[in-house]
Amino acid sequence: MMEATVAAAERPAPASDKAPLLSVDRVTLSYKTPNLLVTATDDVSFNVRESDRFVLLGPSGCGKSTLLKSVGGYMMPSAGTIHINGRQVKRPGPDRMMVFQEFDQLMPWKTVLENVMFPLLVARKLPKAEAEALARQYIDKVKLTRAIDSYPHTLSGGMKQRVAIARGMAMQPDILLMDEPFAALDALTRRQMQDELLQLWEDTKFTVIFVTHSIAEAIKIANRILLLSPHPGRVKAEVVDVDKVSHEDGSAAVLERDIHNLLFSTELGHKE
Ligand SMILES: Nc1ncnc2c1ncn2[C@@H]1O[C@H](COP(=O)(O)OP(=O)(O)OP(=O)(O)O)[C@@H](O)[C@H]1O
Question: Given ligand 1 and candidates 27, 31, 33, 226, which is best to mutate, with the most ligand atoms within 8 Å of its CB?
Fold first, then answer.
C-alpha cells in the first residue's frame, strides 16, 4: 500500500515529463456587485496534466465553481492567466465542456439522442450522420441506449446526469469540467455514478476537473486533489497519488481524516 502525499502549498509541484494541458497561474477572481467587490479566489495556481482526475476541494463559498467557470472561459480573471494547450483562455470553447449539478441542464423538448447530438451539430458542425453515430456511442457508454428516444422529464436524476456526461464526453473535449455533478443525487445513486465515472475513465482516460465539497467523493474520484481554504479560496495544499490509497485497508479513511484536519484547522483555515 502506498499512501497519498499531502504537499504543502508552498512546495513546487512534482516535476512531470508531460507539459501541463492546463495552467492556472496566480489567478484572482472577483465579482463586482453594486455595493462591493467580492473576491472569490485569491492568487490560485495549479496545473492539470492529460488524463488527470483533478479535484478542486474546499468548503462552501471558497470559489470552486468560480474557478471552474473561469477555466470554462465564462469569466475572466481580475489577475493572473489561464492557458490550455499553450493558448490563453478568453472565452468558452468546445475544448472545455461543462457538466453541472442541476438536473435541468438538458433541453426538455429534445430526446436523449437529440440532446447529446446538439453540441456536435452546432459547435463541432459535424454532419448529422456522424453526430448521431458519435452520440449513440457515448449514450451506450453511459448505459442509456434503452432510453435513447426518451424526453428528459421521463428520466431519473441519475439518468439525466448520465445524459449530461454523455453530451460532454461525446464532444471529446480536452477537459471535462464537472461542477458537483452528483451532489443532488441520493447516496446510493451518487456512489453508483462515481463508480460509473471511474469506469468511463478506465475506458477513455479523459481529463476531468471535478468540483466537490465532499472529502470522501474527492478521494474516490481523484488522482490529484487541490485543497482550497475558506473564502476567499487560496491554495492550501495539493494531495498527489490519491488513486494509490486503498479503500480496503483503511488508508483512504486516514487520508480523509488528514484532509479534514487540514481543511478545518484554524491555523491554516482562517488565516487571512
Ligand atoms: N454572481 C455572483 N455575484 C456575486 N458574488 C458571487 C457570485 N457568484 C458567487 N459569488 C461569491 O463568490 C464566492 C465563491 O462562490 P462559489 O460559488 O464559486 O463557491 P463554491 O466554493 O463553489 O461554493 P459551493 O460549494 O457552495 O458551491 C462566494 O462568496 C459567493 O458568494
Answer: 31
